[in-house]
Amino acid sequence: MPLWTLHGNGRTVEPGQVVTPGERLNWPATVAIGAQHVVAMFGATFLVPVITGFPVSTTLFFSGIGTLLFLVVTRNKLPSYLGSSFAFIAPVTAATASQGMGSALAGIVAVGVLLAAVGFVVQFAGMGWIDKLMPPVVAGAIVALIGFNLAPVAWDNFEQQPVTASVTLVAVILFSVLFRGFLGRISIFLGVIVGYVVALLFGEVDFSAADEADWFGLPEFHLADFAAPGTWSVIAMFLPVVLVLIAENVGHVRGVATMTDASVNQHTGRALIADGAATTLAGFFGGSGTTTYGENIGVMAATRVYSTAAYWVAGVVAVLLALSPKIGAVIASVPAGVLGGVTTALYGLIGIIGIKIWVDNRVDFSRPVNQYTGAVSLVIAIAGFTMQWGEFQLGAIVIGAAAALLIYHLGNAIARWRKTGADDGGPIPAVGPLGGDPENAPVR
Fold this sequence. Notes:
Pfam family, one: Xan_ur_permease
Subcellular location: Cell membrane
Low-confidence stretches: 433-444
Keywords: Cell membrane, Membrane, Transmembrane, Transmembrane helix, Transport
Transmembrane segments: 46-73, 80-98, 104-125, 137-155, 161-179, 186-203, 223-246, 309-332, 338-359, 371-388, 394-411
InterPro entries: NCS2, Xan_ur_permease
């Protein structure tokens, strides 16, 4: 029995129809769409290693391997590309600076293992327990604080080359409001290209590493280090990222189910297990943590092709690109000014996703328990609070996340006991794609 049945004549998609995960177009069209998915994910995926200092080729390699693994674990029924998750930038940056890359990789492994464990529980018990632990006010606070905690990092890069950074930032914003559809969804990628061209004109790009790199070769692998003295304090810093990955994966599955078949939702647990396994594998050997990609949802919505065959092509193409150290070196040559401009927008957008969770779920901020859940956790993150006991240190992300959980649940229990206005929460929301057309918005 073939893995995919041919959709229609294999060349076109009739109005009102979609190519389902179990179907495909003819192979030339499938290869072209798979390559398009690689282009869609490329900008966001390479930004994470460039910002964190991880090897670009290694991240791209495990992005492709992770995508293929995802398709296997989900039994070839859920189309998705696994690219680098922005949620890892804050803990990876802090962990690398304080303990080194090996400890940061151990944190990524820990997130992957925990996410896979959550996936197994969801597969058999459903999402209800997560909804109770992480109601919208808590979920929004934790997602927002991960982004806002990075504000000083954006400024450090911005002030090094302010003109290039300003042009890059303006380009990102302009492309996001100028274009609809696919181009709007990759506004960050387009902004990086504009900024890179400006940096070239100003002589700010260093090509020395690219000149010395080979055209073909294996990626640069690094091993996770669980034995370093500060590793376990680093791991604590990574754990809030699990919430973001849960929300991103749930949002991806719901998006595919809405466009194809509601039965796709039953694969939510497998999606979490697959992303957890891919993140664990990447972390063990030097890659960035992975997640499902909103950019690829945009490509599928535009083409109406949800065939998993296209993602097998995309995964293979990513692996082949990763086998060129020269391509990785060119990508890694993006200068500080470009990074400063794009991360000013990017880190703020991560924070805005958290606020959007509050807005979408109509969080009642007239209730003190909700006010302080958000207020205290965000100030902790933005100010960069730390706590240290000997070699063990807790960073602002884990302190802020713990504060959100404790303030909400303990405060809510007291408010319910005293009848002073408890909050009943609600289901954890799904994080949708950044950029592009607003959902259900009319074209004017």
